[in-house]
Protein: Aspartyl/glutamyl-tRNA(Asn/Gln) amidotransferase subunit B
Organism: Vallitalea pronyensis
Amino acid sequence: MSYADYEVVIGLEVHSELKTKSKIYCSCSTEFGGEPNTHCCPICMGMPGTLPVLNEKVVEFAIRAGLATNCKIQGHSKQDRKNYFYPDLPKAYQVSQFDLPLCYNGDVEIEVNGNKKNIGITRIHIEEDAGKLIHEYGGTLVDYNRCGVPLIEIVTEPDFRSSEEVRTFMEKIRSVLLYADVSDCKMNEGSLRCDINLSIRKKGEKELGTRTEMKNMNSFNFAVKAIEYEAKRQIRLIERGEKIVQETRRWDESRNVTVSMRSKEEAHDYRYFPEPDLMPIVTSDDKIEAIRKSLPELPDSRRIRYVTEYNITDYDASLLIASRNMADYFEEAVKQAKNSKAVANWIITEIFSRLNEEEKEEARIPLAPLQLAELVNLIESGTISNSIGKTVFAECWGSDKSPSQVVSEKGLTQINDDSQLKALAKEVIEANPKAVLDYKGGKQAAIGALVGQMMKATKGQANPKIVNGLLRDLLQ
């Protein structure tokens, strides 16, 4: 039997650190990168006699995330102790939520290969993060700075059937959380990661197979590779007549394999019970409605609006709205620009490329929206050509000079004078007899060589539309 005879079934548990200034139950800083064990206190270290106090902002951010993913909001919620003994939890339990999560029954639409699909959101609950284990010096060290950093956990239904669906969903969730302004979603810092629950079954079967869980995937690429490896591993086991063990595994990026960590716990193993040191969470309908009204326009809505309002393709709109900062940048530029489609093209082709080359974040674009709008307007008005525009773009990148100033200082104004260009066109025709013969012989593309010579002679300043017309007229 081949791999094609099987179906992969995947559910996700997405963990996102919330961008609060202080931790979930104490006033310690949540800032990333401090010296080990400097952002902690008796409360987040679980010292006897200490009492937690819930950070109200955590509840607000969780509700924002729930509303942005079409969840229902629990008006009366509580927190629970999830008991397990592990060195990264000094209390030997994690404060989480069990049967009354803040948010439930939501959904997120994804599109893969032109096919739209709704992924069910079972629940979103709040909890505290654990510390970080550092394996070195022949032993294990613990850094408790992350202990008590507020998290939301987004639990999906087992609705995924491919690694590509998982990647698309993770990209979508990241975008939604950034728009909702509840997390910075920096995967390299661990503020967005996911656990992947995966099982396989023969196509046509309804019963779910035995699942394994792959922990703490903090890269879209690693998640895709782990899913594809684990699915094949489970199929091989079944084909050999062996049983799949329910366990927790991790992705070994050096070997490109999943590796067993420990047996997988069930809910009853955690011995959940209500957290006695924290009051229930009561959220009024008015408060929920106020949070709903404070949400910005979300990615899907923006994408649809960009297509209709700015006359750009759905694909281009999807690229622009992937980052809230870039979408805001685009909208600021088009307020001043004469051609919104041209603005989109410059962002997608030039700005994205530059940011990637220089490894800059989109939050720090070294070209103001007004500079881009002015550049587009200079091209639209015929003051400069598109090719000269790239020279001006490069000069303005990282500078406070306006495009008009660069054009003036460097004498880059486009040549639109017919008589001047006509004299030059005659010289180019005389100097390129082969291209002329090819063109007259029916090779229409040969005129491109002549246009190229004209542009070279004018250092790209000749109006290409006028040049084309003059050459064709002279060659008749």
User: Anything to note?
Assistant: The chain is about 40% helix and 20% strand. The chain has a mean pLDDT of 90. The chain has three domains: 3-290, 297-410, 418-475. The radius of gyration is 29 Å.
